[in-house]
Amino acid sequence: MRIQIIAAVAAALTAAISSAALAGDAGVVETVAETAYGTAPSRTRMEKHAGDVVQHRELLETSTSGAMKVKFTDGSKLALGAGSKAFVVAYVYKPEQSVANAIVSLPEGSMRYVTGAMPKDHTTIYTPTATMLLNGADISVGVNDRGNTHLMVENGSVTVRSRTTGQQMVYNAGESVDITPTGITTSTAALQ
C-alpha cells in the first residue's frame, strides 16, 4: 500500500513539474498593424495589442489587412502576415531546468520566423503539408488556400519533411522549397 502511495505521489509530482514547465507566458506582442486576435486556452477570442502576453497553446490570427509581431521568451521572433493563423502549440524556454521546446503550427497564411536562444533543432514549424525543424534559422513560410507550403530559408538550415510522403531533405540559406501533397520540390519562386 505504501509503495502504491509513493508511486502515486511521484507520478503527481512528475505531472506537476511538466505542467509547471509549460505554464507561463510564451512571449509578448511587439507590434500590431490593423487588427490581430488571440485565443488563449479556456478563453474567448480577444483583440491583441502591443505589450499583450502570448500564452502557450494560444491561437494567433490577423485580419485580411493585419499583421502582428511576437517576441518569444528566448528571443525568437514571429512576424505573422495578413489573413494568417498561427497556433503556439508548445513554447517553453527554461534553460535552468534544461527544458526548451518550441512548436508552432501555421495552418494558413504567411509568417517569418527567426530563432533566438532556443537550442538548435528544438523549434518545429508545422503546416498542412510540411514539418520543418529549424537549426539556427531565419525563414519565411507561406501556406496557400490549398494547404501547399512554400519555404524560403534566409539564414541557417531547416530539415523539411513532407507530412504526406515522408520525404525529408535539408535546406540551407538562400534555398527555397515547395511542399505539396505529392512531396517536396526545390523552388526558386513563391508558391501560387
Structure description:
- With 192 residues, this protein is mainly beta.
- It has one domain: Sandwich (Jelly Rolls).
- 11% of the residues lie in helices and 55% in strands.
- The chain contains 1 helix and 15 strands; from the N terminus they run H-E-E-E-E-E-E-E-E-E-E-E-E-E-E-E.
- The protein has one helix at residues 2-22; strands spanning 25-33, 36-39, 46-47, 53-55, 59-62, 67-72, 77-80, 85-94, 99-114, 123-126, 130-143, 149-162, 168-172, 176-180, 183-187.
- The protein has a 15-stranded mixed sheet that branches.
- Strand 11 (130-143) and strand 12 (149-162) form a beta hairpin.
- The longest helix is centred in the first third of the chain and has 21 residues, at 2-22.
- The radius of gyration is 18 Å and the shape is globular.
- The termini are far apart.
- It holds the Pfam family FecR.
- Residues 1-23 form the signal peptide.
- It comes from Dongia sedimenti.
What tags apply to this protein structure?
1 helix; 11% helix; mainly beta; disordered N terminus; 15-stranded mixed β-sheet; 192 residues
What is the secondary structure topology, with strand pairs?
Elements: H1 2-22, E1 25-33, E2 36-39, E3 46-47, E4 53-55, E5 59-62, E6 67-72, E7 77-80, E8 85-94, E9 99-114, E10 123-126, E11 130-143, E12 149-162, E13 168-172, E14 176-180, E15 183-187
Parallel strand pairs: 9-10
Antiparallel strand pairs: 1-4, 1-6, 2-3, 2-5, 5-8, 6-7, 7-9, 8-9, 9-11, 10-11, 11-12, 12-13, 12-14, 14-15
Protein name: FecR domain-containing protein
Signal peptide: 1-23
Domain FecR protein: 60-158
